[in-house]
Amino acid sequence: MSTVTAIKSCAMMECAFNSDGCTAYAITVGGQKDASCVTFVTLDARGGLGTADAHVGACQRLECVHNADLMCTADSIGVSADANCAQYEVR
User: Fold this and answer.
1) Name one Pfam family in it (predicted).
2) Are 79 and 29 within 8 A, CB to CB?
3) Which among 60, 57, 41 has a CA at the least distance from the CA of 6?
């Protein structure tokens, strides 16, 4: 894999890394029940990079069609208002 998957949008407005998009350097997609952004954090401060240029650093959802070697192979993903990966798709 020569590229990382970009985060095209994030609708989770309560996340400290959302400032007109995801400002984390990279997120992890995991979760117990749903394929969710486990980097999500609610704080009174905003954090991350100065611009919304985040990527998927790791994906723990082995059953997703976009998962290869714990990396996301989708061109880009969106994170929904409930912090779930919008491109998650079971094999």
Assistant:
1) DUF1540
2) no
3) 57
Cβ-Cβ contacts under 8 Å for 84 (sequence gap 6 or more): 31, 34, 35, 36, 37
pLDDT digit string (tens) for 12-68? 999 999 999 999 999 999 999 999 999 999 999 999 999 999 999 999 999 999 999
- Let me know if 80 is exposed, middle or buried by CB neighbors in 10 A (0-12, 13-18, 19+): middle
Token pair recorded at residue 23:
């400002």
Count the neighbouring beta carbons within 10 Å of the beta carbon of residue 61: 20
